[in-house]
Amino acid sequence: MTALFALAASLLWGLADFGGGLLTRRAPALTVVVVSQSVAAVVLGAIVVATGGWSEIGPQLWFAVAAGLVGTVTILAFYKALALGPMGVVSPLCSLSVAVPVGVGLALGERPGMFQLGGIMAAVVGVALAGGPEVKGAPVQRRAIVLTLLAALGFGTVMALITEASTTVTGLFLALFVQRVTNVVVGGTALYVSVRRGSPALPEGGFPWRALPTLGFVGLADVAANGTYSVAAQNGPVTVAAVLASLFPVVTALAARMVLDERLRGIQAAGAGLALAGTLLLATG
């Protein structure tokens, strides 16, 4: 179950990141974050009401608030990095996020077996290679790398926090709702300040109504990824769940290849294959 849910999280995160990065090339990153997370918050609010999730209110929700605060900065930094691109290089670097939850798992006493340890090493190295060697050059590229490293730290922190925010399914819905409301409040405040300072809140053509389904998908896919990762981490070793969930950059890179025709170099393809081999070792170890 841990492997299945963690891989589902990586697929959903990868698609959400691709969609968010693509939208940020057409609209301000803050607008993309606020609108996508608002859609997710509305849907989650309805689910919480329908499932009676309010009964799960407790001090553990502060972890969800913290995840929302960190997550807003994280998503914003990552979307800006993806907009600077190329996605096939930026996204795999975010695999460094796995260091945070894996570190938490090791601190809690988890000790992976020989096959799992080999799978962890193969997956992490594979995802890093999938980014290719193009990590230096123009100032824009260096800025993208700095933003990506910031996002990696944030993603890892969110993964660790959201796992602690609930212990039941209904509690998970409530925790995700609180996280999204926090995202919207923080992002909305930042957007308001940005507009007051003269920055545009919308692209030149006005609100991107045609992009609303994509914005909704980005928000909901991100929520679903957080949820499936939380289930994976609570039902198995955090070290395994974190590494498998961290494969999302490969999904983003492949989506960029298929949709944007960003071509993978030989070393990137080899990295993707190594990541897949690591996944198989983790799943069977």
From TrEMBL:
Cellular component terms (Gene Ontology): membrane
Membrane-spanning intervals of the chain: 28-49, 61-82, 88-108, 115-132, 144-162, 169-195, 207-225, 237-260
Source superkingdom: Bacteria
UniProt KW keywords: Membrane, Transmembrane, Transmembrane helix
Record domain EamA: where: 3-130, 143-283
Keyword Cell inner membrane annotated: no
UniProt similarity note: Belongs to the EamA transporter family.
UniProt-recorded name of the protein: DMT family transporter
Organism of derivation: Streptomyces cupreus
